[in-house]
Structure formats: structure tokens, C-alpha cells
Please model this.
Amino acid sequence: GTALGEKGQTFSVRCDGILARVIQHEMDHLNGIEFIQKVEDYSKIIVGEYYRKKIKSSKEQLKLSKITVLKYLKVS
Model:
């Protein structure tokens, strides 16, 4: 999709990792979708304390959080 910059210029962004997740999350908000509506398996929801202690700094999470693709394409 495309977006508008602060000066009204049209552009698109291609990205991955945590940036892609954040952008998708915010787009969902704009479209009236809450995170909980996307949950398919409620048994996988975890408590924040568990996440901070066991997952947040794990090697797997750090790998998933890396941004390896970030391209801005000027459309107009």
C-alpha cells in the first residue's frame, strides 16, 4: 500500500521484522481491528511478566525483531 509523508508526498514502505509488525498493528487500529480479534489460539496468550522474564531477550525474539528489509519507494 501507499502512505502520505508529512509534506503530502506519496510513498510506500517495504520492511520486515518488528517494524513490519508495528506498521501492521497500527494499520489494524485504523481499520478498527483489535489485536485480540486476530488471536486464533487463546492458550498461547501469556502474562506480561512471563514475556519480560523468559521471551523478551531470548535469541529467537531478538532474531525476529531485526529489521533486514527497509525500502522507501517514492510514488509521486
Summary: The first strand starts at residue 3 and ends at 4. The mean pLDDT is 85. The radius of gyration is 16 Å. The first helix runs from residue 17 to 30.
